[in-house]
Amino acid sequence: MSNESISILPKTGLAGLKDNWRNDLLSGFLVFLIALPLCLGISMASGFPPSAGIITAIIGGMLVSRINGSFVTINGPAAGLIVVVLGAVQELGEGDAMAGYRYALAAIVVASVIQILLGVFKSGRLSSFFPASVVHGMLAAIGIIIMAKQIHVMFGQAPEKGSSLLSTIAQIPHSILNLNYEIAIIGLTGLIILIIWNLIKNPTLKMIPAPLIVVLVGIGLAKYFDLDHEHMYLFLPDASFLTHHEETVGPKFLVAISDNFISSFNFPDFSKFATLEFWEAVISISLVGSLESLLSAMAVDKLDPYKRHSNHDRDLTAVGVGNLVSGLIGGLPMIAEIVRSSANVNNGAKTQWANFFHGTFLLLFVVLFPQLIHSIPLAALAALLVFTGYRLASPSSFAHVMGIGKEQLFMFVVTIIGVIATDLLIGVFIGIATKFAIHLFRGVEFSNLFNIKYNISRNTNDEIILTIIGSAIFSNFLRLKTDLANLEDGKTITIKLDEAFLIDHTVMEFFHDFEHQYQHKGGNCIFEGLDDHEALAEHPLSVRRLKN
User: Fold this and answer.
1) Does some domain include residue 49?
2) How far apart are CA 43 and CA 290, in angstroms?
3) DSSP secondary structure, 175-236, as one string
4) pLDDT tens, position by position, 204-257
5) In whole angstroms, what is the distance from residue 452 CA to residue 482 CA?
6) Residues 373, 236 share a domain
7) Strand 492-496 relative to strand 500-503: parallel, antiparallel, unpaired?
8) Dist. CA 279–CA 209, nearest whole Å
9) Total-model pTM
10) Of 347, 365, 389, which one is at a domain's C-terminal end?
């Protein structure tokens, strides 16, 4: 795309629909093909009926796309919320899956009200309070948990009921050694397809969504193994080198969904509103959902070829409204989802109408072809989730964090261990406490942890001078971030760091993004005093400390 075409921003609203409907319709259809299996898999992994994920994506596409503050993001259920939603279902239901589902819906409704209030009171910038390494550690831990649970499904087995997370992980070898061969063939085939497709570079082939291929191959294998009818089989009965045992397969290994979509609607039960467990679920859903949505929206802004910037507060309000409707009729919580949004950008989407079309296609499909959804094997969806979990916790994510600095890797690992050993919220706060401890160890004054010292002035040339005194770290720079956002465009801003004792990675990353955004708006950003600091790692945005 040329710079000239990028400078002409696509129109929004009905005018944008008229100009760009071809691009957005095609992208919406391709994203729908990716979203359908992921919505089903995420929903079942969360302890919800499979239709719940589709309800969420329909609302995210058809409602949220009309009121949000972004341009090319796709809203729907996300793997990162599986752990908190499943935890709410199990904790609140106390063994009763249906009751837990309805209690969790109530928690989603209350959490959505909190999200709406956060957006209305312009609290989107609060996401900056959570250090990048802690957030990445949280997501990596979620990835490990997803893999630990879905590997059993992929091999046609299930961990013992009531098993703890560590016990679920410990039972993986047992599930592998006692796998249901036909189900495992479906799951492993899907996983191999995803790995191969991830290595393919051909742009034409890349246009075909890998999840679609996994589902189609899974449906074909399910038909070959006759999973529509319950029966027993002996795997390779003539192979003398195998220890044979009979396995049972049948419809229980396929997606169970109603032929009547309206009957999929379920309503929340608020009877546990006054319990501690209910509010733990509310806080977890609102915190993780809001944080993930804001981070995804910021990441998608960087992918947008038109360099448009989302209104994150409006986006958070819109997601909250979507979650309110979703929770009231039986859906999962939604976020601005990064994988589907990236595909949307790559497919040439121009406006939020692509998100609208993706939701519309999902609605049409679930109404017209429920039997086709029922023919999808659970093992194929489990393969998608295992691969998604691996991407969240891949070795490359460890290497990326290590490249920023050893202390970042330490916080990353501490957060992972904390989440796995305790729960999501406690693990995140352990990670944040670790970062505070590291800053104090490096000499940051205790009074500086939550209070930043700086002043903004102008010289005779109307140049804006920002002078930072002391330490600028993740927990104290929200006020500074707000003041910088309110500066007029098109000026020269000089950021003086001569008196800044320490600048952490979160603030360095913010300065880097701010510089590019401000220059894009016609301004200029100059940094003075960085040469007086030592970088604590080779990464250009690593922690900087004033030299002695």
Assistant:
1) yes
2) 19
3) HHHT--HHHHHHHHHHHHHHHHHHH---HHHHTS-HHHHHHHHHHHHHHHTTTTS-EEEESS
4) 888 889 999 999 999 999 999 999 999 998 876 655 555 556 888 999 999 999
5) 13
6) yes
7) unpaired
8) 38
9) 0.90
10) 389
